[in-house]
Amino acid sequence: MLILCFRFVIVLVFLLALFAAPAHAAKLYVVYASIGGTQAVGWVAREAGLFAKHGLDVELLFTGGGRAVTSLLGGDTPIVTVGGPSAIAARLGGADIVLTAHIFDTILYSLMTAPEIKTVADLKGKKIGASRFGSATDFSLRYVLQHYGLDPMKDVTIFQIGGQAETLAALRAGSIHGGVIASPATAEAKRLGMKELVNMATLNVPYPQTAIATTERYLKQNRDTVVRFTRAYIDGARRFKADREFSIGVIAKYTKISSRPTLEATYDDYAPYVKMKPTPTTQSVQTVLDQLGATDARVKGAKPREFIDPSVIEQLEKEGFFQ
Question: Who wins on pLDDT, 55 or 15?
């Protein structure tokens, strides 16, 4: 009897230890599409331990421009945080990608130019840089040119330059007359004497500047993971808004910028625009479709609702997460 009791105690202790031990979540690789303030919310969530708080072991990886969507569709990552145009264009091409949240929902780039360029009209016949064709910077550039009466296909020459650093370097070298960049590159461009010709945030255009995207298949099979990731990301938005000093430190780490004025400008440029309830909107998608429709016949008949899945945010709302 004593031996049986002893064995029972051993088994009981083992079971208690098993259930008390923290679960080791599988590594989740998430790609973000730019090194700029539009991705700072995800960086803050990672550095503040918020993904771990929600039971995820997230590794954030940088892959610039439209390549982030390519990594999603290629199976390299199940979730990306990207500008909406590349994801929307991929779905037009038959991919099952959907936008599940809009973290920033208006254009937050600047059109920076050489000092001698005084108006948008002065760009006629000039060279302008975007990161990649089909990227968020490319879309924003074409939108602004049309907004001010220039035809992006005829009146200017648009080059694929690369990331923010490459665009800034090309501007500085005089290889291009203008380029689309975002903070912190915007602040550095001003310091170098470049002109902020258009601050696109002032246009108040509905636009999926930074969105969480996944595939319909992954969302169906791993819904709990997407929900946990979204919870952590929104907690990151709350921390970003509430803790300026911490957020500035995180931006410094990921951008490798040490200039305090540049870091402060980056934070101040983005903090007012973070959506605390990041429901994906059909209005933002429609902005992109209207622009793509000028050159892409596949847009005809496309409905904005087909490109978003608001069910994750709706679930969090029902849970009282936003209260």
Answer: 55
